[in-house]
């Protein structure tokens, strides 16, 4: 299972502001990744194939 680096989530700023949703494939689905998103008020959405 792949792990998203929490620093990557911290660096997801763009000219429009902080992201509120993260779309990722199911390979990134894990308790740690969901927790990292929740700590940053980002709603994770995982694509299931």
The rough form would be described as: globular
> Please, what is the average pLDDT?
84
- Strand percentage lies at 15-25%
Helix content: 25-40%
Kindly give the count of domains: 1
Counting DSSP H or I runs of 4 or more residues, the number of helices is 2
Quick gist of this model?
Helices cover 29% and strands 20% of the residues.
Set out the fold topology.
Blueprint: H1 6-10, E1 21-25, H2 31-39, E2 43-47
Parallel strand pairs: 1-2
Structural account:
By secondary structure, the chain is an alpha+beta fold. It has one domain (6-47). 29% of the residues lie in helices and 20% in strands. It contains two helices and two strands, in the order αβαβ. The protein has helices spanning 6-10, 31-39, and strands at residues 21-25, 43-47. It has a two-stranded parallel sheet. β1, α2 (31-39) and β2 form a beta-alpha-beta unit. The model has no long low-confidence stretch (mean pLDDT 84).
């Amino acid at each position: 299972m792949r792990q998203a680096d929490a620093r990557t989530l911290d660096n997801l700023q763009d000219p429009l502001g902080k992201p509120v949703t993260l779309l990722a494939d199911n390979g990134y689905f894990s308790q740690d990744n969901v927790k990292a998103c929740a700590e940053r008020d980002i709603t994770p959405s995982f694509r299931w194939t």
